[in-house]
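Practice problem 4.
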C-alpha cells in the first residue's frame, strides 16, 4: 500500500542499521506514522547525507503493508526552521511530548493545525509560555485526557473562587483544606475558574496551568522520562555555573 502527497512533521529520528533512520512523523491525515528512511545516513556523491528537518512541514510519501512503512519522499514545503536557545529546548520538549503520547494511525487534524501554527509563531524567535500551555491543553483534549476543571468532582458543584482544590487525573478537582497555594498540587479556585475559561490575564493563572499540566502530563507518561526536560535542566545548571 502506498501513500502519496501527505504533509507532516518529523517528531523523532534514530539510527537504524548501517545507513538508515527510524523516523516518527506527525501527519495531518494519518496521525503518527513510523517509517524507515533508507540510506538517509549515507552520504551522496557530493558527500552530503539527505536531511529531515524538525519543526518544518514536509511533503511525504511512504509505502508498505505492515505498521513500519518505508519512506519514499520527504521534501520540506518551505525553508527549514532552525531554533536557538530557549526556543530550541521548547521545540525539543513539544516534539518529544507528541512522540510519547500520540498513538499510531490516530489522526488529529485540528491538533495538527495547532502544532503547525505553534511553530509558525516560533519562527519569529519569540517564545510564548501561554501558547505552549494552550498546545499542551489541546494535546490532552484531543487524546481524551482533557482537564475537568469547571466543577468539583465529588459534589458536582461549581468552584468557589476562595477555596482550594487538588486535581486527581481521571477524576477531577477535589476540594482540600489546605489554605496555602504554595502547597504542591493545590490550586486556588479563582485561578482554576479563569483557566477553565481560557483567561490568562494574570501570572498566577499561567503558573497554575504550568503546574497542573505538568502533573497531568506526568501521569499519562506513566513513568516515562522526557529527555528534553533533563537537557533543559542541564542547560540551566551550566548557565548558572558560567555566571
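Answer key:
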Amino acid at each position: 500500500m502506498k501513500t502519496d502527497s501527505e504533509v507532516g512533521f518529523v517528531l523523532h529520528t534514530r539510527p537504524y542499521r548501517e545507513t538508515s533512520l527510524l523516523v516518527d512523523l506527525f501527519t495531518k491525515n494519518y496521525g503518527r506514522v513510523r517509517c524507515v528512511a533508507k540510506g538517509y545516513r549515507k552520504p551522496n556523491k557530493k558527500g552530503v547525507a539527505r536531511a529531515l528537518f524538525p519543526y518544518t512541514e514536509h511533503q511525504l510519501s511512504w509505502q508498505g503493508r505492515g505498521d513500519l512503512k518505508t519512506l519514499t519522499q520527504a521534501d520540506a514545503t518551505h525553508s527549514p526552521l532552525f531554533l536557538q536557545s530557549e526556543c530550541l529546548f521548547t521545540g525539543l520538549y513539544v516534539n518529544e511530548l507528541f512522540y510519547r503520547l500520540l498513538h499510531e494511525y490516530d489522526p488529529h487534524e485540528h491538533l495538527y493545525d495547532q502544532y503547525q501554527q505553534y511553530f509558525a509563531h516560533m519562527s519569529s524567535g519569540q517564545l510564548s509560555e501561554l501558547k505552549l500551555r494552550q498546545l499542551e491543553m489541546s494535546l490532552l483534549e484531543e487524546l481524551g485526557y482533557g482537564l475537568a476543571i469547571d466543577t468539583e468532582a465529588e459534589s458536582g458543584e461549581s468552584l468557589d473562587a476562595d477555596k482550594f482544590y487538588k486535581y486527581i487525573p481521571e477524576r477531577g478537582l477535589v476540594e482540600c483544606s489546605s489554605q496555602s497555594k504554595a502547597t504542591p498540587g493545590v490550586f486556588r479556585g479563582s485561578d482554576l475558574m479563569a483557566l477553565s475559561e481560557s483567561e490568562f490575564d494574570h501570572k498566577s493563572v499561567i503558573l497554575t496551568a504550568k503546574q497542573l499540566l505538568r502533573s497531568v502530563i506526568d501521569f499519562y507518561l506513566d513513568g516515562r522520562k522526557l529527555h528534553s526536560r533533563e537537557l533543559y535542566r542541564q542547560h540551566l545548571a551550566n548557565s548558572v555555573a558560567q555566571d
